[in-house]
Amino acid sequence: MSKAAKATDVETAEVEESSSNDEIEGQREIGEAELKAIAEAMIFVADEPVSAKTIADVIKVDREAIDKVLVELVAEYDGRNGGLQLREIAAGWQIATRPEHHEQIRAYLKSRPSAKLSLASLETLAVIAYKQPVTVPEILEIRGVQSPSAIKTLLDKRLIVAKGRKETVGRPMMYGTSKEFLIQFGLKDLSELPSIEDFQDLAGGSDS
User: Which residue of 98, 132, 149, 178 is 20 to 30 Å from 34, comparing CA positions?
Assistant: First the structure.
């Protein structure tokens, strides 16, 4: 090997070593307070509940560290006695308003123009939520009226999803609620389903 080639190899090795050292020097350990602040900020800007795993993957820290700061954040929000809380919803975390203020928040939201579900859609959604997986004929048997328009509306709004076909005559499609349903109703899972009367609070508007 020529002297020029050897010199080039040495220079390349030095550059690679320098880059490696720079990368190591550029890394720093994130303190618990900063980790908590970053996790809170990510949850705040997220369009939907964000999981602890997602936060850990983005920040590149252990999942256990995120679980710890989330527990502390929940306690901090609860200790503030403010209007917000940190809740686990649909397998993720979200900053939400407190239940005791829902009446005032609902009154404010009703004062703004918005696309709401019709009573027919709400009744159909309630049947699906509590009886899922359920077929259209089964919904008809419970409601006593056809629900094709309501089913389409709920599918368009991604509040329900197809859950496969029932092994019976005609193999009708079965429907169940979606992750979007959990998000819209602020539920951690289906065990937190509200009473059927709560569905009525969203009545109004049209299926369009």
Answer: 98
